[in-house]
Amino acid sequence: MAILINGETRAIVQGITGKHGSFHTRLMKDYGTKIVAGVTPGKGGQQVEGVPVFDTVKEALHERHKVDASIVFVPASFAKDAAFEAIENGLRLVVLIAEHIPVHDAMEIKEIAGRYGAIMIGPNTPGLISPAKSKLGIMPSQIFREGRVGVISRSGTLTNEVVNHLTMAGIGQSTCVGIGGDPVTGTSFIEILSLFENDPETDRVVMIGEIGGQAEEDAALFVKKEMSKPVVAYVAGRAAPLGKRMGHAGAIIERGMGTARSKVKAFREQGIPVAEFPWEVSDLMSRTRRS
Amino acid sequence: MDVDYATQSKYFFGILEVLSSIQCKRRVAIRILEYEAKAMIREAGIDVPVGSTVTNLSQVQEVLKKVGMPVVVKPQTLTKGRGKAGLIRFAHTANETERTVFELLQSDLRGEKVRKVLIEEKIELDKELYAGLSIDRTVGKPAIIVSAAGGVDVEETAAKSPMEIISTHVDVVRGIREHEVRRLVKEIGLAGNALADFAAAVHKLYVIFRQLDAWTVEVNPFALTKDRGLIALDAVIEIDDDALYRHRELQHLLREPQESTRLEDEARKAGFAYVEMDGDIGVLGNGAGLTMATLDIVQRFEGQPAYFLDIGGGVSPEEMKKALELALMNRNAKSILVNIFAGINRCDSIANGIKEVHKRGKLDIPLAVRLAGTNEKEGRAILKEIGIDVYNSTIDAVKKAVSLSKVR
Asked: Do residue A101 and residue A148 come from a single domain?
């Protein structure tokens, strides 16, 4: 089963004719993802990697039945409309890869997704992958291995680093979800945690956090209250200089909120083991197996 | 469709979070100066004090003719905390005003030089109110925050007496009606004209917040006056950098953010996140998360990072070349650690960027390179050609970078 996507998931690619869209369509298809159509306004009738391209999502859904999801590769300035198009045509899962989507757009997409009961992943996400089943994203697939550990992360490249260590330690993954690195994302740690809690193919969960915001602190409370499955956390950014802005996170760090230290503390207070470095996650995982 | 509007939230931590209004990695809010923010809110129909800015003493008399006496004299800085630093002054005569302007133009606020001073009429007021719009990232919605305790640090109010602050989330697609704002501001104890006036003003602030793609629109305080209704005595507007492309009218406001060094500015213009630190190992990575984790690991192996440079995703060879050239401009680094785990990036593009810099003979600080992920093999081959070793794991690359930094 995994969560959100599996071997049966049928997806379209919006922005399929672009540089990233076409390149990753090939990689996703190679991985076994069922990419059934592409959409690029004005490019209807073409083919990309053997996938038929349509001008609109509506046409794509009409021609290719039973579509579940869309992965959106269009640039940030067009992403809002593309996301609306997917959601308002009834797709239940929309993955927004682009970074630099204006935050007001992200809020609007999130609101519309909520109204339609759609799940929005991103923006600024590597996407998600259920190893050996399906991938809707841009992550390097060779590092993932099928298994029973769920992974949730705010950071794409950090996920790669941690998953690489997990796989090398022989710990496979059920689904890895990048919720996105932006301040406003479609789904939170908590929503994905609860999906993993209810997934019979997931035994344990790794949460990869980052400095800034409150999401990890909130998730720690949720884990304590609602999760029966063991959770291990990792937070990057201990060496981030206080009072300096890593991007803009400094504004929070100055207040002592959202620091790596406060997040580690929040996890430990709720009894969640925290890895100090990426390679320690698999060690901690092995220990949770025994308990 | 069931429209869930304006859900009340008075949770103390929620408010603190909203007040910090904050962005994370690679997000830059463009803050504008007080007088520019005031011009924007005046255009939206909110009253502001009569005033004008000066950049030198010779302009003061002219401004005073328009403004009258007494006046408030305020330095225009992007750095916060003017009041606490004692830089907001009052003057009762023309001489006093000139002297004050002279002093302020010599001063700085935590390193930000004062270049412009705003001279405004002093407003006689009955009461001070607070109104702020921001984004609550925990729920991904705009939040309206109002308080009858204006004129003071609202974060302190939130910490000491959270009940004095009322906030609500807004359905960003539907927006908020003026009558809903009236209901909200009634809760802070306003009545009569003040109630209707304040609600109308807060509603206008929300419209500005949406129109400008703002992170924050804040008026602290709004002065409630006997004869002139509400007047905004101060205004803060922060605009989402990522939305500037659709605000041609704001392009002129683009300026260097405070607290940044020359290299940090250059990096920002080139689209990289770059933060200088005190050590001697340059850290260049893709993605804020991996790059930050790399800093942690460098410290773990007894190295000290000289900077954090996140090149982001989808980087072309030209962009990689630019990033590396920028890294090479920081002469505190004795070695540079390049840590790439490519997803949407491609290792061959990264390697080609490095090769370009190498070809021009500009690679005069030793590199420790780790490549993994998309097109890893191709990337390795390119670097092998020019004699650069590539590591497979972060740890090995970090160890190499640390040892290189100790050699020279």
From this structure: no
Q: Which pLDDT band holds residue A252 (cuts at 50, 70, 90)?
A: very low
Report yes or no on A58 lying in a domain: yes
Active site (annotated) includes residue A20:
no
pLDDT tens per residue, range A152-166? 998 888 899 999 999
- Please give the Cα distance from B170 to B180 (Å, whole number): 10
Strand order in the sheet with A173-178: A134-137, A127-130, A173-178, A146-153, A204-209, A231-235, A274-275
Contact criterion met (CB below 8 Å) for A70 and A57: yes
Question: pLDDT tens digits, residue range B11-66?
Answer: 333 343 333 333 333 445 677 899 999 999 999 999 999 999 999 999 999 999 99
State how far the Cα of B136 lies from the Cα of A107, in Å rounded to an integer: 10
Counted domains in chain A: 2
Q: Is residue A129 part of a domain?
A: no
> Taking a C-beta distance cutoff of 8 angstroms, is the pair B332, B301 a contact?
no
Residue A130 lies in a domain: no
Contact pairs from chain A to chain B, CB under 8 Å:
218
Q: Is A104 exposed, middle or buried (0-12, 13-18, 19+ CB in 10 A)?
A: buried
Whole domain around residue A29: which residue ranges? 10-121
A183–B372: do the CB atoms touch at under 8 Å? no
Same domain, A104 and A213: no
Same domain, A23 and A158: no
Q: Give me the sign of the Cα torsion angle A50, A53, A57, A63.
A: negative
CATH number of the domain residue A117 falls in: 3.40.50.720
Chosen from A103, A277, A280 to mutate, greatest number of chain B CBs within 10 A: A103
| CA B151 to centroid of chain Cα atoms | 22
Residue with tokens 């003493």: B57
Cβ atoms within 10 Å, residue B193: 11
Residue A33: inside a domain:
yes
